[in-house]
Amino acid sequence: MSDGARVIVGVSGSLHSLTALHRAADEARDRGAVLVPVLAWTPAGGEHNYRLRPCPSLLRAWQELADARMDQALDEAFGGLPAGVRVEPQVVRGEVGPALTSLADRPDDLLVVGAGRHGALRTTVRRLFQGGSVSRYCLAHARCTVLAVPPSDLQADLRALRRGVDLRELTDLAA
């Protein structure tokens, strides 16, 4: 295992983040690096609202939920911890982009983020309320190499299923 080499990956539990997590695990194995999955969270309503009305018991509950979401993401992706790689999961309080770029602070780190194709409405809402995409933030602010992982082809199939498209019809048309 390389001394100090790390592959840091953002995790949310979404299918897109699980795709990035798998790619990060492969990269960590290939590099002999430590895999550092990171789940960043903020209090419901944001930090500003929490500072106005702090509630330590709610803060503990949110932390526990974030810890559980990390465990669930690792279980869904690998059935636990991935084999053949050392894993150091981190659940941190903070905005996702800044949390990832502050953790990936070494020149030899690799930061893996999901870079997806989103619809116009979702992109507009994200820009208005969340300040843009995490992958763009990381690409602009990281001090290390950033690997932007495109969505899995399975995501298009899932979107089709949600819209009520029968995938057998698509397969028949392709044949």
From TrEMBL:
Chain ranges of the UspA domain: 6-150
SUPFAM superfamilies hit by this protein: Adenine nucleotide alpha hydrolases-like
Origin superkingdom: Bacteria
Protein name per its UniProtKB record: UspA domain-containing protein
Species this chain originates from: Kitasatospora putterlickiae
Lineage, opening ranks: Bacteria, Bacillati, Actinomycetota, Actinomycetes, Kitasatosporales
